[in-house]
Amino acid sequence: MSDVRHVLVLPDRDAAEEVVEALGERFAVDEEPRIVRDALAGEDDAEDAQWLVVLRDEEGRLDPGALDALAGEWEGWREEP
Fold it and tell me: 5, 19, 32, 62: which is deepest, by most CB within 10 A?
């Protein structure tokens, strides 16, 4: 078993929560993805933050391109490992 993780970067918390819901509907992920706030370096304002959706894919069954397309629907992207 490998420790594969995908990180989707979204512009706000609402988008991150919607992506988590869509992941469950479209990909039937086994484990609830985590939502993490990532403040941009040097920024004190909460508005200047990205939201990350972190999901494990130990079996390697999730298509990175499909995840990138999903994040793109909310003006986000998938980070390359």
Answer: 19
